[in-house]
Amino acid sequence: MKKKIQGSDRRNFLKSSGATILGSTLGANLLANTSSFSFNDSDVLKVGLIGCGGRGTGAANQAMNADPKAVLTVMADVFPDRLEQSYNALKTENPEKLQVSKENMFIGFDSYKKVLASDVDVVILTTPPSFRPGHLEAAIEAGKHVFCEKPVAVDAPGIRRVIEVAKKAKEKNLALMSGFCWRYDFPKRATFDRIANGDIGKVTSIYNTYNTGALWEKERKADWNDMEFIMRNWLYYNWLSGDHITEQAVHSLDLMSWAMGDVMPNTVVGTGGRQTRIEEKYGNVYDHFALVYEYDNNVKGFHFSRQQKGCTRAYDITIQGDRGNCYIDVFRKHEIKGAVNWKYKGDKNNMYQTEHDELFASIRAGKPINDGVRMAHSTMLAIWGRMAAYTGQSIKWEDALNSEEKLGPALEDYNWDLAWKMKDVAKPGLTKFV
Question: Domain 183-347+372-413 belongs to what architecture?
Answer without folding.
Answer: 2-Layer Sandwich (3.30)
